[in-house]
Amino acid sequence: MKTVTPKADEIHHEWWIIDAADKPLGRLATEIARILRGKHKPIFTPHLDTGDYVVVLNASRVRLTGNKADQKTYFRHSGYMGGEKHIPFKTMIRTHPERVIELAVKGMLPKNALGRQLRKKLKVYGGENHPHQGQQPKPLEL
Fold first, then answer.
1. pLDDT in tens, 121-132
2. Domain locations along the chain
3. 8 Å CB contact between 123 and 53
């Protein structure tokens, strides 16, 4: 048996659309990361971008279970002494709902150049509207 590596012209990137309304954040993020990575395809190769594009709608309506909505915070640091910022989930979902899903998916992708390339294929929108109708994305039910 031989190991077959897919060539660039053999890799086809499809477009998927996901409605995040009332879905748990972690379960949603794992499915998005799986599709971005290409693990749902038989030609999956760990070092190549075999994944698809993902459009996420209604990011502002994503849910957390238990007390996580009250306890979860997002950490940033400016690089200066005392430059820590802790942003509560409720503030983040109100001001930047796209970042909540983007950060959850970012943690599930590789931390290298391939991961950065895959993150560019994720398009997240807080509401129902998106500018990707021309790509004819297929709906994905979770």
1. 999 999 999 999
2. 13-64+105-142
3. yes
Fold held by 13-64+105-142: Ribosomal Protein L13p; Chain: A; (3.90.1180)
Q: Where are the beta strands (DSSP E) in 1-142?
A: 15-19, 53-57, 73-77, 84-88, 122-124, 138-139
Query: Which run of H or of E encompasses 43?
Result: none
CA distances from 46 to 1, 2, 103, 110 (A): 19, 17, 21, 10
Tokens encoding 98: 């796209």
> pLDDT tens, 75-124?
999 999 999 999 999 999 999 999 999 999 999 999 999 999 999 999 99
d(CA 85, CA 76): 5
